[in-house]
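Go through the following before class.
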Amino acid sequence: MAKVLSDIEIAQQATIEPISVVADRFGIKEDELELYGRYKAKLNNSLEDRLKDEKDGKLILVTAINPTPAGEGKTTTTIGVTQALNLLGKKAVAALREPSLGPCFGIKGGAAGGGYAQVVPMEDLNLHFTGDFHAITSANNLLAALIDNHIMHGNALRIDTKRIIWKRCMDMNDRALRDMVIGLGTRANGQIREDHFIITAASEIMAIFCMATDMKDLKARLDRIIVAYDMDGEPVTAKDLNATGAMAALLKDAFMPNMIQTLEHTPVLVHGGPFANIAHGCNSVRATKLALKLGDYCVTEAGFGADLGAEKFMDIKCRNADITPDAVIIVATVRALKYNGGVAKENVSEPDIGALKKGIVNLDKHIENIQRFGVPVVVALNEFLTDTEEEYEFIRRHCKEKGCEFARSRVWKEGGEGGKELAEKVLDIIENGPNDFRFLYTDALPIEEKIRTIARDIYGADDVEFEGDTLKNIEKITAMGFGRLPVCMAKTQYSLSDDAAKLGRPTGFKIRVRDVYVSAGAGFVVVLTGKILTMPGLPSVPAANGIDYNEETGKISGLF
């Protein structure tokens, strides 16, 4: 039996074209590229300027059921269907998020796809790539340093040190940095106060980076960041600290979208990387809009399940960027549905139609969630060798009853060829499916009711419990003029509820809101629910333990 290659082995054996060759096939000129070696490039402003009057292509969003240890394959599907569309003679470009080092060295792994539906160079993407995350981290921490420096040198803005809300960040899971005391030692070390770290993906700078449309918009958003409140309870902004110019200088190169390629040499724009459980979970607006100009089809993804990333894509990104999806793919697997039906992880490969019938309710809810936005849906079922035809047929009939299309996907094993059935179904629903896109809620709906609408309609909750001072915080945010902003829910990705242990389609629960604050620069109100953390920790056996560099071959092993 032939050895089954790992993702990184497949990537390392691939033939990669110079990125300038890939770019040329899609009409990108040499002087519109800022090369990072032979296989990576940034797309400079001249390309955006040249294409601004071109017609937009069709926008395809890939989302999924709630993630499980059994695996789903959302990024793999995004890449595979992009390859398949190109094989069918269509001009398709993918737009993805950049991986964070936290998951890469933690438990989730990278974000390059898998099997023969990957982007390359895989190691570069999953590690430092072009340095965008480092630039965002530096801009975030420069602002933090300027706050403490201002206080040290007289505090002319009268910042209340008990109400500093700006946190430092780093791109690594490090639970020991969640809460700390800084300024210890002599007076020269600054004022003693409580401080916190978040992961870079949760920084408001990351959100601004992904929501801004151009450099002018980026700077205007940076200006609006609220870093603290003064002794009178009034907001203190990054503009008040004269921090915007320096932050923009750190971000100017990072703000250009990155381009790499799939294993089949189709272009992929990879830019920005907010998580969907603690942020808005979508790649940059700039990259998506550029992909829509470069291709007849742009295939993009939103993090985790349709209860998180897809809802935020619709209600935050589409609202902000004035874009509309033409079709949505919901990714699922037989194994994951059986896991939702109560089967233990080690047994999901065994045939169990009863567990499948029980667990498919999770898929049902995500189909309903997308249908609420009025967009046509196709379910993509990633195949595994242990699946049975009986299980496939049950899911196919079930999807038909739910009013959505269904396609089997073999992109992990076969690349674009294995995604043709899915790509053809997507093309069909774009051409023939009714599309009546609408937001879940209006701008005018009060913040409290926006939260309730998402909890009830998307999560299936009975109601919302506002803990502590959350309702007072909402009143304050509204009084400050931010009541019309959309809300960005921070919630566990593993369940439709805020309790990670509740699988399937939970009922009879309430969403517990424990904090609400405004990200004025990003343009949304953040709502923390349940036990969600903005600085994750590493597992007992982190992926880092299995990653190595061979000094003789020059190859990295263990990345996935």
